[in-house]
Structure formats: structure tokens, C-alpha cells
Amino acid sequence: MLSVVMTQGPTAPLTRPVAHEHPEADLVARLVARDPLAFHQLFRTHAADVHRLALRFVNGEAEADEIVQEVFLAAFRYIERFRGHARLKTWLYRITVNRAFKRQRWWRRRREVGADALPEQIEHQPDQAQRVESAQQLALVRACLDRIESKKRAVLVLHELEGFDTREIAEILDCPRSTVLTRLARARADLIRLAREAGVDVPEDGGHS
Amino acid sequence: MNRSEDPAQGDPNAPVARALLRSLEQQPPSWDRAREDALWRRTQERMNTEQPQAPLRLQALLGIAGLATAGALAFALWAPVEAPGASGEAAARSTPRVAEARTSASTRGGRATLTFDATDRLQLPSGALAERTSGALIEVVTATADATHLRLQTGRVSNEVPSLRAGQRYEVETATALVSVRGTRFAVAVEAPDHTLVSVEHGKVEVAPKDWRVVTFVEPGEQRALMNCGPSVEAAERSAHPRCIAEAFAARAAASADPVERDTLLLNGALAASTTSAAEAVGWWRRARELSPAGIHAEEVAFRELEALGQAKQWTRRAERAQAFVRDFAASPRVGTVRSWVVPPR
Questions:
Q1: Residues of chain A contacting B49 with CB distance shorter than 8 Å
Q2: CA B46, CA A158: separation in Å to the nearest integer?
Q3: Is the complex ipTM higher than 0.85?
């Protein structure tokens, strides 16, 4: 696996030097020097996270795989632009979200999954607890999430599913933190409204689902 | 990574939304070492063909040089050209400038190799735009003002095709399907050597499985998977009555021990029969559904049966089946379509 034959890039110093106190400064320096082993290390460390995040935004493993490739290819192309103000993971996440948005714009998925395509309300079944765990419930929640406007959905996914705090999300999405907070609140409200419309059991206080 | 420090915690909707998303949070990871290795190899291949980004000033100079070259090449692109199939794959692998064209000596007009540009897009002489995903292998078989024929070996290609005049055609071929369109936006993906996925954003796409001749159509928002499963009908049977074709498929399905192959053969048989009459199609689709209620094509079969029921104007039964469809395939993008079909029983 490590018998990499990769185009060796310039060994010139960084365009924007990464601060020495940056915890990944050594790795970034090797990346800028186009060290193949450094890129493999970057891939092994973050590819699974990038893939998981991509899956939150696109439909299907194949498309998520493509985004993973595009993200690391972009990292290879543009590593000089990494400013060192955030972690490498945050930077890769920003590329991932941008790539996913780009694909969504092309496909206009939200038009495909229009109002009519929202899953039908489910008739009540005897065992409510089992239903919550069912794949059908999962699909409904996923469909509701897909219907939220992409920028709001990105904030919701990054915060609730990926565990980023709002400052990091502001870094990833390159927007003010106040915008993140606004989008997060609206995304939550949208999700709850759509879930109710779709017939999902919406817990009253979140204490149980 | 610290939710507890997040001031958004004050939002009364936060715990409710979190509870709703809990099920998604717990989805099993699909990542494994094999996938990682495969993706790294593919990414590495792309990296090996990449050049690191040049400084901005150099990029500007290169841009000017590229424009000059593009102008010189524009004349070569102007005339309808035929791309050599053998070199198409190699051309698709490279990442040169905008739609490079190289003419070579030919007794009957120019020949050119069309290649995707650095953004993986290819502007075709017909006015259509093809955009491939990274790593996709595409052979440009024909690219003239009137005819475009792409052969997709692996990966995915998204196509934006303007309304074509009579006589013009735009086709994407894979190992298992021939996809042809007129004025639409669609994508074709080869997810495995014998598995093609066609999805349509708008317009209408005709899909012809290669192993038999009955075509189907994919509507906006739909996806159609075509798999090369099991034996196809013989050439002699292809010219036979659709009912005979359907029976040939049914006989092969009955003899098949592989459930995936059997399901696909049943689907093909019912598709063939559906070209005879709606009433007959209803019977074939019902048969396919009953023989394989949880098969890999269960959604397709149920949907087709509904369609046939509608065409046969069996409204009451259609309403019942539509409700069953909605219940069984709540996550299907077709649920919205089915809802609009539901009419109350008389």
C-alpha cells in the first residue's frame, strides 16, 4: 500500500506559514512538500469521518465514495491554502460540505424529493416502541432531514450528528457564529415540523423517542 | 466537539430534534479497511496525474496561454468529428485543458479525441454537457453535431442534453444498458461491472437493457437499476411475441436457484408482458409479486403492478394496492406519485 508513486511537488516554504504551535504543523509541512506518506496518513486518519459526513448529505455509498476522493484530491491540490487556523479535520470537513453542496446544486435533490415525495403518514401500529426502532422510522426521519434547506441542514448535521460546536461549524461553513446559531434553531424547528407532518412520533421533550 | 458549552442549548427544540436524530446517529458504519484501501488507490491514481497548484501569477500566464491554444483549437472542434473508440479510454483518463481536440489525417473528414477538462466536464459538439465523477472511465464512441455516443465503463456521468432535433441522438452505453434521451438532465452510474443505475432529474429517458429489446422509461425523480443477472432471452425469442418472451423469462426464473437472478428474470418477464395489454400485465406483475414478495425488485414490481392496474382501470383494486405500496415502501421516492393515484373505492 505504501509503494506510492506520486508526483513530487515543490519543496518551497508555505505560502501562509502554519503557526509552529499548531498541533499538526509537522504533518502540514510534509503535506505541503507533497510527501506521499503524509497524504496516506491524512487519508487513513480522516477518510472514514469524511465518508460518514458525506453520507449525511448525499444518497448512496457510491456518491459518498466519490466525495471522499474529491476531498482528498482537493487537499492535495490546495494544501498551500490551509491557513493553520483550524484543525486539518475541520478544513477537510469544509471541503466535504462544499463538495456535497455542489452535488446537491447539480441534482437539485430537494426538487426531486419534493413535497409529494414525503413518505406517507403511517397508520398506527400496535407496538409503538418497536416502530420507533424500525427502518421505516429511520427512513422517515432521513426524508425529513433531506427536505430541510441545505445550509440549515448542514448546521444541524454537523452539530447534532457530528458533534461539532457552533464555533467549529462557523469555521467549517465559513460564516459568522451568529448565523450558525440562527440556522441551527431554524433547522431544528423545520425538522420537528416536517417530522410531525410525516407522522413521526415526535417526543414532547426529547427525554424519550 | 463540546455540545454542553453550546449556547444553542437554550433552544427548547434542541432536545426534541436530538431525540429525532438519535436513530440516524446510531446507523452502523459502512466504512471498512477494504473500502479505505480501494478509495485510497483510486485517489492516489488521480493524485499521480495531478500537478500541484502553481502560484497565482503563473496561473494567470498559463490561463492566457491556454486561451490562445483554445482559440487555435476552436477551428478543429467546429466541424463534426468522430472520436476513435480505442483511444477514448486513455483520453478520458487524462486531465488536460478545456475539451482538447487533436486532429489526425483521415480521408473522410477530421478525427479528434475529445477529453474532459480539468473540472471533469466535456462540452460535446451537439451542445450537450457531460460531467463525469472522478475516476470514471468513459469512452467517447461518437461525438458529432447529430449523434453522441458515450460508453461508460465505470463511475458516473451526469448529462445535460438540450432539446434535440429529429434525427439527433444522445446515448450512454454501459455493460448492461443503452440509455438514450432527448432534452433532459440525467445521470448514469456503473456501480459494479454488471450493475447500471440511471437517474433522471427532468425530462424522460429511455432505457433498454442490453440483453433484451423491451425498453422502459425513467421519469424525473426516478432511479432505475439494471443488472446483468442470469441468462438473457435468445436472439430468436427477441423477435417473438412479448408473451413468448415473458414465458421464456418465467421458465428461466423457475429453473434458477439464485434468488437475485430469479427476481431479475421475473421482472424482465413481466416487463415484456406489459407491452401486450394492461390486463395481462396486471397478471404478470401480480405473479412476480407473489412469487417473490420480498425480492430485490419488490418496489419496482409493486409500482409496475399499480401502473398496470391503473391502465386497466381497476380503480378500486388500485386504491387498495396503492395504500399497500405506501405502507410497504414509505421511503420510496415513488410514494408521492402513488398518493396522487389513489382514488376512493366506489
A1: 7
A2: 28
A3: no
Beta strands (DSSP E) in chain A are none
Interface A-B: count of C-beta contacts within 8 A: 206
Compute the distance between CA of residue A18 and CA of residue B25 in angstroms, rounded to an integer.
34
∠ CA B163-B165-B167, nearest 5°, is 130
Chain B interface, mutation test: which of A165, A182, A186, A196, most B Cβ atoms within 10 Å? A165
Identify the CATH number of the domain in which residue B149 sits. 2.60.120.1440
pLDDT of residue A99 exceeding 80:
yes
Q: Which amino acid is it at A3?
A: S
CATH of the domain at B294: 1.25.40
**Roughly what angle, to the nearest 10 degrees, separates helices B33-49 and A61-78?**
40
* Residues written for chain B: 346
pLDDT in tens, A46-67: 998 898 888 888 777 777 888 8
Q: What is the CATH number of the domain that holds A141?
A: 1.10.10.10
Alpha helices in chain B (DSSP H): 14-25, 33-49, 56-78, 85-93, 235-238, 242-255, 259-273, 278-291, 298-311, 315-328, 335-341
